[in-house]
Design goal:
By secondary structure, the protein is an alpha+beta fold. It has a domain of about 100 residues. Helices cover about 45% and strands about 40% of the residues. It has two helices and nine strands, in the order βββββαββββα. The strands form two sheets. Strands 1, 2, 3, 4, 5, 6 and 9 form a seven-stranded antiparallel β-sheet that branches. Strands 7-8 form a two-stranded antiparallel ribbon. The radius of gyration is 35 Å and the shape is elongated.
Length: about 180
């Protein structure tokens, strides 16, 4: 009996008792996590349809948070003196699969927990737009301050070009006066 589950955008084949490393999860060590099943195979049956997958329960326990191996990255372009050396270590969570079950009906406890998490997610979202509204007023004031500064800079440029143009014709008038006398 095994299941294919989706965790953090990746898919894993798991059996009871398996231990796997997934991308970092926000849950604490020892917390029980319900994983999203995509396929269940066991007892001669294979379940992969949406309505039947609601009856599949895949439970896991968070055993700890770890960091992956360091990956070294070197960028190099010959004859240009370009070298860049960087590295990366992924934050990971170790999960241990403790149960995979095919239930006779969809569990009621999961639907309640899903309903409880949705309003909790909506409340912080409601607070964020309220914080953004005052921020929208501030940028409106900043462009007004920038516009007069742009006009001043524009006025200085023609003044700088005019004296240069006046001095050249004045020099030519003097030369004409000298040539004429």
């Amino acid at each position: 009996m095994y299941a294919i589950v989706k965790v953090g955008g990746k898919q894993y084949r798991v059996e009871e008792g398996d231990s796997l490393l997934v991308d970092r999860m926000p849950d604490d060590e020892g917390a029980k996590v319900a994983l999203e099943p995509l396929l269940y195979a066991g007892d001669g049956k294979a379940v992969f349809e949406g309505a039947d997958l609601g009856k599949v329960k895949v439970g896991a326990v968070v055993r700890g948070h770890e960091r992956g191996e360091k990956i070294h990255v070197l960028k190099f372009k010959p004859k240009r003196g370009y070298k860049r050396r960087t590295g990366h270590r992924s934050d990971l969570t170790r999960l241990e699969i403790d149960e995979i079950k095919l239930l006779t009906r969809k569990p009621a406890a999961e639907t309640k927990s899903a309903a409880e998490t949705k309003p909790a997610a909506k409340k912080p979202a409601a607070k964020k737009p309220a914080a953004k509204k005052p921020a929208a007023k501030k940028p409106a004031a900043k462009p007004a301050a920038k516009k007069p500064a742009a006009k001043k800079a524009g006025a200085k440029k023609p003044a700088a070009t005019k004296p240069a143009a006046k001095s050249k014709p004045a020099a030519t008038k003097k030369q004409e006066a000298d040539d004429g006398s």
